[in-house]
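User: For my dataset I need records formatted as: sequence, then structure tokens, nothing else. Please produce one.
Assistant:
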Amino acid sequence: MSSPKPAEPDVAAASGKYSRRQWVTLVVFSLAQFCNAVCVSLQAPFYPGEAEKKGATASQYGLVFGVFELTVFLVSPIYGRFMTRLGPKFINNAGIFIVSVMCIVFGFLDRIKNSDTFIGFSFAVRIVEAMGNAAFITSAFSIIAKEFPKNVGAAFATMETFFGLGLIVGPTVGGALYEVGGYTLPFAAMGGVLLGAAVITTCFLPSEGAEATPEAQAGRGQFFAALRLPSIFLACFAIISASISIGFLQATLEPHLRSLKLSPVQMGLMFILNGSTYALLAPFWGMMCDKYLAPRTLITFGAVVVVLSFTFVGPMPFLPIKLSLPLCIVSLIIHGIGFGAVLVSTFAGAHRDALAHGFPDDLGTYGLVSGIWTSTFALGCFIGPSAGGVLMDYIGFDWTTVLVAALHVMVALSTGIYHCCATPPQVTYPAIHDSLARDKDERQTLLVPGRDDDDSTYGSAGSSRENLGTLP
């Protein structure tokens, strides 16, 4: 089997510059990530109001937001497991196409007058859309981890920057288009844009290295072996908690701010605050993970910052402060700071920890870890709007913020304690490394830790084997 020579990426990484192939990959994925984020977030400012006009409750339309993420949670590990069998490029292209078509279809649901039928079709369309979204996200993250072995944090952060920009544009443009042309226009317009991005991705995404390779498939045992690692388990806990916070705000912020009597455009602008902060700071967090700080340090910091933001976004009921627009704006900006620190550091740290504990440095492991990250993020985004809608009905927005803040206190304490007390891993390598050592194929032999030219153990996090003793 022919394979690309590793010299070009290594030289580019060592010099701090990307190769042409890496630039093409990053640009194509960033464009697709931006358009994808626009499509999945544009309904936040106006869908709750439309659903209430049909007679739906906050619990019902909260579940419409949540079922999207529940589906991603369920199917992402499956995509991760079979990434190399189907080929990440095929999964990626199919996923973007499905999201674009379902976004357009969602724009015609307002024609349904019956409340139960409207909610039922909303569920159906969002489930199919989520299956496409999971395919795109998992495959994109896997290819990014493979193509940027020494800069995975920075490359992931770049993609997340464009995702954050999409979260900014989505609610803003969605609210504006809704005000101009009604319910259908935002979905038809932005779904069409994503369909164009799908064509660009199909044409320009490099095929070499993104083909199916069944021999590198991650097995079921590896999935549970990764979750049994305390560092990865804590990272999953942090991801779930952070995504609960953003999912809760996405579904309940608009009802919470109705007393301020904002216009649809103004309400859309409120939804961009944490997304824009996240987008602006994501490259900074990626650089910190790759070069300066251990990911768990940033996870702890980010969790503390999220606690601070949720203290005042309500504000909490026991504080002698009333809801005001300036206070809410500042709180959402602070949330974007902490949210970004947690997300970027967990992705970079999970790949680093998997390789440090002996998982092979191949596309199977990248798909495995990306599937876990995407799945746990989606689980939190399901719990956030679903439970958040129910809790808002029963205890109100302000008391629910207390629960979200308490969850992040647990993240900060557990991660901080583990960071201080854990010893560096005594690296043991699974049997696959022995078989790879006996394989004469140059590409596979380079995956075996212990060689002089090896950069895999902590390479995906921008560190060298000499750093083994200094990492938590």
